[in-house]
Design goal:
Elements (H helix, E strand, L loop, with lengths): L2 H9 L6 H11 L2 H8 L3 H16 L3 E4 L7 H4 L7 E6 L8 E5 L6 H16 L3 E4 L5 H10 L7 E4 L13 H10 L1 E4 L9 H13 L3 E4 L7 H11 L3 E4 L10 H9 L3 E2 L21 H7 L8 H7 L4 H13 L3 E4 L2 E4 L1
Parallel strand pairs: 3-4, 3-7, 4-5, 5-6, 7-8, 8-9
Antiparallel strand pairs: 1-2, 2-6, 10-11
Helix pairs in contact: 1-3, 6-7, 7-8, 9-10, 13-14
Length: 336
């Protein structure tokens, strides 16, 4: 019986995770002795063998924590996964990384900011790590993928590494598989459940030396990820927001409490360097988005903020509304 199969037979046994595995290994001395003590059925052994076969057919690789390909960030964390599965370019796991997290209900301006940050980090030789959720995570991955190359981003999944979740990110999943890597500690073929997302957040925090949290309310999973990052001794950065927007309460709290460093631009990470932003973003339609949040802003105030006339911004307001980026509310406009 090979080493991988032995470890998976133990780890796939109900109620055995990294902590229990370490206890058993200390008690019995080797994987083979642990397996003998578990009295595993042939059906169970066959199910684990089928998982390995399915992974092989899908081009998925298992990485044990004794393997040189195992991410150093995870390896340095107590009770890390004994085995992870990976799909994509494994070289991505060896590069220095920054983790970026935030709400699934991010604003357009928030997503633009995160995307630009991710792009700039990749241009500076980093990979961007996130959890492939809609909203902020998606913006982080997509910003990283704007830079040419094949090892731009790491997606940590809550289900099996073959499980595409959420379904809205199917195309993103395959692009990451081609130009980055997807990883998980869950068995191949597993659907994500609520408790798995907490574990996923642990590893998003562990993989990088720094974590950036964008928009997030106080009870969000992203705030939990920030807490994990602090526990692991990582540096946490937070993007501030309007105090009336509940999506800003998390980052604003972290900054106020001293648990996070203020993040205003890429210059907070790379001294005296400017973010390289696509020229197409220098249009005042995006200036309009930057001026909107949860509080309705009237056309006249918007026009004054972007230094245009009301008639000049009307057409762009219509386009942005049709695109679902903004909506009318109480005589003004807010971000969706």
């Amino acid at each position: 019986m090979n080493e991988l199969l032995e470890k998976l037979l133990i780890l796939r046994t109900p109620k055995i995770g990294p902590v229990k595995y370490a206890t058993l290994l200390k008690q019995f001395g080797c994987d083979g002795a642990i397996i003998e003590s578990l009295n595993l059925t042939d059906d169970f052994k066959d199910s684990v063998k089928r998982e390995i076969e399915m992974a092989h057919d899908l081009g998925i690789e298992y990485i044990m924590d004794t393997d040189s390909r195992y991410p150093i960030g995870l390896l340095n964390v107590k009770n890390h996964p004994v085995v992870i599965s990976a799909r994509g370019n494994l070289n991505t796991l060896k590069k220095k990384s920054v983790s970026i997290v935030g709400t699934r209900h991010s604003t357009a301006s928030g997503m633009n900011f995160v995307s630009d940050l991710a792009t700039a980090f990749v241009e500076h030789g980093f990979v961007v790590t996130s959890g492939m959720a809609i909203g902020t995570d998606t913006a982080a991955h997509m910003g990283a993928l704007k830079v040419n190359g094949d090892s731009q981003t790491i997606a940590v999944l809550a289900g099996g590494v073959d499980n595409i979740w959420p379904l809205e990110n199917e195309s993103l999943y395959y692009e990451i598989m081609e130009r980055g890597v997807l990883i998980s500690e869950m068995p191949v073929g597993t659907n994500p459940v609520a408790s798995n997302f907490i574990q996923r957040n642990h590893w998003v925090a562990a993989l990088s030396d720094s974590l950036i949290i964008s928009e997030a309310d106080m009870k969000s999973g992203s705030m939990t990820t920030a807490r994990f990052a602090k526990e692991y001794g990582k540096q946490v950065f937070a993007v501030p927001g309007h105090p009336c927007d509940p999506r800003s309460t998390g980052p604003n709290y972290l900054i106020k409490s001293g648990d996070a460093t203020l993040c205003m631009s890429i210059e907070d990470f790379f001294d005296n360097e400017k973010v390289k932003i696509d020229e197409k973003k220098h249009v005042y339609k995006n200036d309009i988005l930057d001026k909107l949040g949860m509080i309705p802003v009237s056309e006249s105030v918007l026009a004054n903020l972007v230094k245009k006339t009301v008639s000049e911004i009307k057409a762009d307001l219509v386009v942005l509304e049709l695109q679902g980026l903004i909506r009318k509310q109480d005589g003004g406009y807010v971000l969706n």
